[in-house]
């Protein structure tokens, strides 16, 4: 549905909406399918990040581009493997309480094969070191991690 | 109204929407009643917090559960009363600039009977110690505090 | 359109929505015009900020009002000009990672005549000093800066 | 003793130092008496703070002086009493991890009659909200609090 | 030497000091031996930490003691091994810029067998995520890490 | 004097110390001359910074070296001049409360010709944005700025 990007409301709308606005209804159905396949939080985060990183590459100066390059090479496989580095990036992001950074590293940790028990231990270190002020970010991290681990993602 | 959860827009929609989509209209009316009774910001915060805390209790390891237990016992009545402790929790949340933590402790301060003049003095200490960077969070705190103190809440 | 304040979706809705709900359609058209003229992000930020600052002036105590007065006089033309001071306010807001403060000072920097190359050097200092944790805020800053510099703003 | 301001070392020096350098020895005895009466940490903090605040009042501009004035009036007795306000200032200082601010508010809490059990509950809220990263500051706070509560202080 | 705990100055003093103050000279020699064996920074950090943790265990309330217990169990071998957890604790401490926490986790990383190349990659992630504001802490971390890895430690 | 690096105590020692320990006395005189010429705080900061940066260049990996290179090029003359950039670096360092970073940028601001009135306006923005938690760092900044501007420096 064009007015809303919440999959639950979209499903409700499909049921409720009057027959005559059939074009909207088809659109709503189509969007809902997308969410089932992809996961709304992941999709929102990834699409905005990609859009703005593209814009940064168009507008940034050389130093900024070098800083972004460094951000990539730092997490490459080296003396420490990618999985360890991504957990390090995640815990740093959690104690500094940056939701987007947390989402990014959760995605990378998922790709690198961090399992549920390992992730819970990273979460605990972040909560302990950073304190209860981290808890709202931890809540959102659990929601995102769930989406990453849902069968459809 | 299924497409939107802003009570003002819901009321406008009820006035505007054509007679034939009556089911949506009834739903919108019902939702609007809820917002009148509860307050949208409070409702949004509380429902997400409850949902994710439930999920955390399903997924977390023992240490995380102990940390959450500690988060509860710390604010219990003791040498300092609950009202003082909740103001301490609030000022700490404000200088660390965590909106969700601020909402949580505003709710608890309201329950504990903190009045407007007292709350303004907590706000001032937070703004002074934390600096003008706290102001946007203070704005949102005032909005939430207003909602907590509205006759309908 | 009353149910949504995303200009792209509004435009799509105008195209899609059935002829009979003509009042909504007119309203949607009108809102869309506003967004074209003003810029959605700027509009959202400015209107909320104004609303809550008004509310603060109604409710705050004397010390808070003095603090807000100090927040104004600090950025006035003095030994340093307004342009330099607003860049100082911006870089401080970026390393402390406060999106609303960043938007505020981006608007003031734009008014004070900071150009693209200068802004990129402020962005770089913020990214360097504050680290990659600043990047998500930098993305949103670029989006807002683009809107400030779009021909319609 | 002129070369050292550690009371324990001063006492040891008095015992050890050869009879001929009697002037140093007398000076060491005198300094040691001061430390017994005042407490070294308190003395170091207070004397530096006073010295630099004096220098600031000589050099600062009007806005800075207003900011310092605001810092004083904010903690004055009002809707909340001084004791509560100083505990608020302390917990804010602890979660932001500023040792000098912690010392200042510990001193003020001591004057305002905060007792050991109350202080431990403030310490716990600071540790919980701010996390284990607060612990080194908590250690130094306990040391300073002990000095404030020692019979000689 | 009783007046000074800098091993280089102690050695210089031993060379310089006049024969008659032989007791001081013997003491200085003894202290210097200790520094050779142990490492001054490690010794200073460990002894203060132990002293104050002992004092905390004497004075703290039950919640604080539980928080300290949690701080221990969190880093125990589990789904993640001790080495990984200590690197997580270190990177969190570095981006939050707490020198004592950094020292503590450097010591634990050293015990857990983190090698130089691995440590440099942890350092880089901390510098990148936390920004150049981390550099002074990184300098002190390198100094401490060198001491941990010196043949005498 | 070998046991102490406080110039005031050194001068007192020179006056007090018994004639027989003449070698120490000469050394003390020499050191005191150095302090008169250089300024103790500047000397301490610069010498440690240089020593550890040298050690970092010996031990760091390629990414860290690139990060340090970026730290240099970022403050070079460009669309913004060095003076403006150094004030940006300073205000960022003050709100993030890093004493060593503050000292570094104070030194650079001094070289770039920032005058007292300008510096006070930078200090005010830092205090305002960062809050009263910045004040202890502001005190140390004033002390260092005084030393930079003393006739001997």
Characterise the protein shown here.
Chain A has about 150 residues and is an all-alpha fold. Chain A is built from eight helices and no strands. In chain A, helix 1 packs antiparallel against helix 2 and helix 6 runs parallel beside helix 8. The longest helix of chain A has 20 residues. At the E-F interface, helix 1, helix 7 and helix 8 of E face helix 2, helix 3, helix 4 and helix 6 of F.
Write down the overall geometry of chain A. Answer: globular
Give the N-to-C terminal Cα separation of chain A: 21 Å
How many β-strand stretches of chain A?
Answer: 0
Number of helices of chain A: 8
Beta-strand content estimate of chain A: under 5%
Oligomer kind: homohexamer
What integer is the average pLDDT of chain A?
85
Which structural category fits the helices and strands of chain A?
mainly alpha
Give helix % range of chain A.
over 70%
| Largest pleated sheet of chain A | none
Runs of chain A with pLDDT <50, length 5+?
1-5, 16-20
- Radius of gyration of chain A, taken over Cα atoms and rounded to an integer in Å: 19 Å
Which chain pair shows the most residues in contact? A-E, 31 and 31 residues
What pattern of helices and strands is seen along the backbone of chain A?
Answer: HHHHHHHH
